[in-house]
Amino acid sequence: MSSSRALFIAHFALLGVAIIYGSSFLIAKGAMTGAVPPRAFIQFRVTGAALLFWSLSPFSGKDRFLSIPVKDRLLLATCAAFGVTTNMLFFFEGLKMTTPVNASIMMVSGPIAVLVAGAILVKERITMPKILGILLGALGAFWLIFSGAGFDLSGLFESDVAKGNFFVLINASSYAVYLVLIKPLMSKYNALFVIRWVFTFGVLFVLPFGGPQLLEIDWSLWDSSIVWAVVFVIIGTTFLTYLGNIIALKTLHPSTVGAYIYLQPLFASLLSLYYGGESWNIHMLIGGIAIFSGVYFVSFYRRKIAV
């Protein structure tokens, strides 16, 4: 595959990931309330995605888990701990204590955490274009979130809300570490092989938390909308998004992958124009320009393809 084609596929995959995440705010919003306890829902997500990744085993190359070095097996488990277990558990626990708006604000710290984690863990050089891009993207995302909340962020630092915000910050930072740690594995092994074992470990790591809550599910509350929301979250928000990110990591730096998180609130806003009954406003344009400018500086400005 040519380098230009690989680059196109990587960015196309990340664009798809951002669209799916943006859609999930509309499709799955409120669908899980009362129907599935949060940790049981995480168990559904991780187990369902793991089964889907195992179904792709014929396309995952000739690598076998027991034949790779022990240090790489431990790294797969570590990636699962950061990218699946800690990431998902802290997000759901944090979201219970804070608001969606505040959670979105904390998530904006993700790309910044990727830069810091890359500099610490793999000694990646932090360049001025990267810093400028991250700041522009953060500004655009903040602007969309603030304007969507009517510029009212009262209670952001109240005790319970602050604890929830801190949990979401842990979630974003944990995923940033995952993006940095999994990059070397992408260069050594088939991407499907890597993500299959990450989610296999993830199922085991989540089970002590999500397993007991599976018994608390009130199946009488399930209707077609709940079922389709669960299917969308497993296939779209989990399976396809993690798959898209590992495809991108084959070619791009973790900081570029992280920067695409800024597109999520933008797509959520745009989709709300058509499906959520919202009206267009100048804040979407301001936020959109800043976000796309930030992604440009992180991804394209004076950069070569990451190998």
Could you describe the 3D structure shown?
The chain has 307 residues and is mostly helical. It has one domain (3-215, 227-299). It is built from twelve helices and no strands. The protein has helices spanning 3-27, 38-55, 70-97, 100-107, 110-121, 128-148, 159-188, 191-214, 224-249, 254-259, 263-275, 282-299. The protein is globular, with a radius of gyration of 19 Å. The chain starts with a helix and ends in an 8-residue tail after the last helix. The mean pLDDT is 78.
Write the layout of secondary structure elements.
Layout: H1 3-27, H2 38-55, H3 70-97, H4 100-107, H5 110-121, H6 128-148, H7 159-188, H8 191-214, H9 224-249, H10 254-259, H11 263-275, H12 282-299
Helix pairs in contact: 1-9, 1-11, 2-3, 2-8, 2-9, 3-7, 3-8, 4-7, 5-7, 6-11, 6-12, 11-12
